[in-house]
């Protein structure tokens, strides 16, 4: 089973999302964070779970319609690159 790691920009993205949501609803912020972490945690067992990414060599896991985890995987590791709001995915 591949190792799972979060790169610093992905951690920063997740914390920014949680901070933003918690301004209005701390319970919802915790629920979003937990859901993202849980679904990302499954990637080491199922690294092909996400769709092909928009950037070559990446995959995208849609956690909710508005939250997308961008990651890269190979035989030995899954690296979480970014956690983005869907609005950040389009020009």
Brief characterization of the structure:
The protein has 91 residues and is α+β, with helices and mostly antiparallel strands. It has helices spanning 8-22, 26-41; strands spanning 3-6, 51-52, 59-64, 67-73, 77-85.
Folded structure, characterized:
The chain is α+β, with helices and mostly antiparallel strands and 91 residues long. The chain has one domain: YaeB-like fold (2-Layer Sandwich). It is built from 2 helices and 5 strands; from the N terminus they run βααββββ. A 5-stranded mixed sheet has the order 1-5-4-3-2. The longest helix has 16 residues. It is globular. The N and C termini lie far apart (36 Å). The model has no long low-confidence stretch (mean pLDDT 94). InterPro entries: RelE/ParE_toxin, RelE/ParE_toxin_dom_sf, TA_system_RelE-like_toxin.
């Amino acid at each position: 089973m591949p190792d799972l790691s979060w790169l610093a920009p992905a951690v920063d993205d997740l914390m920014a999302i949680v901070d933003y949501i918690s301004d209005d609803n701390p319970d919802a912020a915790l629920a979003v964070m937990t859901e993202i972490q849980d679904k990302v945690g499954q990637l080491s067992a199922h690294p092909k779970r996400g769709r092909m990414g928009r950037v070559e060599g990446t995959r995208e896991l849609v956690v909710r319609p508005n939250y997308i985890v961008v990651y890269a995987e190979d035989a030995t590791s899954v690296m979480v690159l970014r956690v983005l709001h869907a609005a950040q995915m389009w020009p």
